Amino acid sequence: MPDVSTRHQPDLAHHVRQGIGWLSASADGENTAARSYAAFELRFAAERLAVHYWAALLDRRPEEQDLCDIESFKRVERQIYEIEGHQREIDRHFEFMGVVLGAMKIDTPLHTSKIGELSRFWHECSELCHIAWPLSCAAPEVRSAAVTALTEIAKNLSGYVQSLGWSILKDAAFAWHKWAMAQNLVGYFVDLEAGPGHSGLRFSQLCQL
After folding, report:
1. How far apart are CA 92 and CA 177, in angstroms?
2. Per-residue 3-state assignment (H helix, E strand, C coil) for 67-85
3. What residues are paired with 201 via a beta bridge?
4. How many other CB atoms are there within 10 angstroms of residue 170's CB atom?
5. How many helices (H) and strands (E) does the chain have?
């Protein structure tokens, strides 16, 4: 019996663990059914992360209509972009949060959420959940390519779930941070240890804006 749970768990890493468990049981793709289950669980994992980010951005208790809006990965992806902006704005948000964590001397993994990458993982796993896989998996090169792809996806998703996640600043002192990102000022945030005469703005000065 592979090292997988027979019941779904709510924690963020559950489906990644499940996917890795089925991958281990696939014996490098020879056990082709196990590999299918790995793809299915990793697709769940990508979608679970997207819903987790959406819920953080929603910043309130979801209502019935909200749940209707996330019935597919594409809908969740669209909701995230509508709330937070496209990937460039998202990158700036995580860059800013890295500066905040550094200034507060908080040492924790912070993996930038790449929504397009999660979408790619979801679609790649979906392709391996269709009937074409059982019909073509007798070919060694097909099995090898599938295992390689899923192993890489599992590794990347593990990085996402170990990260701090989508941090939201609620303190009024940081109300300006979206404005700063919109003005492309993130590159001017400097280490608190920067010496006199540094051309950038100090973090403490920006906090007073």
Report:
1. 10
2. HHCCCCHHHHHHHHHHHHC
3. 189
4. 7
5. 10, 2
The answer to whether the beta carbons of residues 190 and 202 sit under 8 Å apart is yes
Q: 156-184: per-residue pLDDT in tens?
A: 999 999 987 776 655 544 444 554 544 45
Alpha-helical runs (H) found in 7-31: 14-25
Split at pLDDT 50, 70, 90, the class of 203 is very low
62 versus 122: the higher-pLDDT residue is 122
**Cβ proximity of 113 and 156 under 8 Å:** no
Residue type, 71: E
Label residue 5 by pLDDT band (50, 70, 90).
Answer: very high
pLDDT at 178: 52
26-61 burial: b if 16+ Cβ within 10 Å, else e: beebebbebbbbbbbbbbbbbbbbbbbbbbbebeee
What is the C-alpha separation between 134 and 123, in angstroms, rounded?
18
Rg (CA), the chain: 21
Q: Is 205's pLDDT higher than 70?
A: no
- For residue 184, give the nearest of 92, 81, 91 by alpha carbon: 92
Rounded Cα–Cα distance for residues 129 and 144 (Å): 16
Question: Are 44 and 67 a contacting pair, CB within 8 Å?
Answer: no
